[in-house]
Amino acid sequence: MNKKIIVPLLIILSLGSFASAHEKSAGKKAAALSVSADSIATDEGLSDIYDKARKAIPQVKSGTYSVGSDWFEQAQRNNNKVIEQAINLDEAFAKAPLRALEMSGDDRFEKYIRSSINRYQEDSRQAVKNDWLVNYDVLNSEKGQELADRREDKRASVDAGGFKWQKLDSSFDWASIIPPGTKVVLVGELHDEGVEDIVVQIIKNLKKGGKLKRVATEFMITNQEADIKRFYQTKNPKEITIFQQGISNLDEQNQKIAAAGEGLTLIPLENVRAQYLGIDTNEKLKLDDRFKKTYKSSDGDEMYAFVNSLLGRASRNIFWMSRLEPYLGQEGLTLVYAGEGHTDYTSISGTVSQRLKARHINTFVISYFVMNMKKKGLFIAKVPEEYVEDVGADYAIVLSK
Questions:
Q1: How many separate helices (H) and strands (E) can be counted in the chain?
Q2: Average pLDDT of the chain, as a whole number
Q3: 379 and 250 share one domain
Q4: Looking at the structure, do residues 272 and 176 belong to the same domain, yes or no?
């Protein structure tokens, strides 16, 4: 899986103090994220008309759209096939967008990808504008990045040397540290550090008492629900893959989580559109040469920058909450496994933990960091109450290298 698209920035901790980079530089590329209408131009170059036609397809099909509108008259004057193309393209991609893309020419492929990225950004921005927790204007400004940097600097100033660290091994009783009445446990990871092995231990430990009912993970996407069902039926790990072909490191991580969570409800959190360049589909992407090239192109870079910007993370948090919403009123414990920038109490992007606490849902956050301490190895400590707000977690796991 191309983790470049889906994952937030990593967190790095310095000697004896917490210092993360998960929001630093997040807004540096934001200024260049807008996509012009020219990016989805038709062969005739009528980009604005084409886009408006696409948005008006339901009305055009039903005959309820006013043909007296300026754009419609302009379309008729220039090339009446624009409307027809928009409708045909919409129907083809609505039925099977990935198959339609595979059969399309390079020019159509590029235009549709640009259109998908554009629509994903537009929808994400609108979701943040409508949100009850975060401020769109702040997140979309230099002020937002400055505020994020200040919060990170404050966390970096926390001296963790006085925390009561203890060695962390497979015998640790995770259930013993979770307060009674907790509804959601959030585990925030550093990517590519093997944190999934710790999460597997947590899942297995919490399953023993029968309280853990659900595991939700950032690293599975919404079109994988059928994969999960087949995996539990066949026990074949190859069912859990992001793309059609091959098994990536992230697939192996997901397979570990799925195996540990067997018997529980497994909830993929990430919107397939965030991973598939804006394409909304229940199909599985065949990562052919054109898609590989696109992921590495300026389009892929733009998608990566947006997904990991303050706005992009906020919209993803909003979406993830919609995925969790059906389960929040149910009995039992839910474990959320995601990048630390989505789970902590400090981010200005409206993290999942912040949203849960704002609704008075009892949460418990465990965050993983890397720190250079005298003793080497894996350690865990309760974050003193006076530092919880700054560190952004109730417990900290530290890998001392």
A1: 19, 8
A2: 82
A3: yes
A4: yes
**One-letter amino acid for residue 350 of the chain:** G
The mean pLDDT of 287-306, rounded to a whole number, is: 94
Q: Do 124 and 142 share a domain, yes or no?
A: no
β-strand 333-339 against 363-371: which pairing, if any?
A: unpaired
Average pLDDT, stretch 29-50? 35
Same structural domain for residues 284 and 186? yes
Short-list 311, 13, 328, CA closest to 158: 13
Q: Single out the residue in 129, 154, 186 at which a domain terminates.
A: 129
- The whole-angstrom separation of Cα 94 and Cα 152 is 42
Q: State how far Cα 62 lies from the chain centre.
A: 36
Range of the domain at 69: 37-129
d(CA 196, CA 175): 18
- In 3D space, the residue among 9, 375, 313, 356 whose CA is nearest the CA of residue 167 turns out to be 375
Question: What is residue 37's predicted lDDT score, i.e. its pLDDT?
Answer: 29
- Are 191 and 65 found together in one domain? no
What does the block give as tokens for 216?
A: 């939700």
In single-letter form, the type of residue at position 90 comes to D
Q: What average pLDDT does range 4-21 have in this prediction?
A: 37
Tens of pLDDT, residue by residue over 64-81, are: 544 445 555 555 555 555
The answer to whether residues 284 and 385 belong to one domain is yes
Handedness of CA 140, 146, 147, 153 (dihedral sign): positive
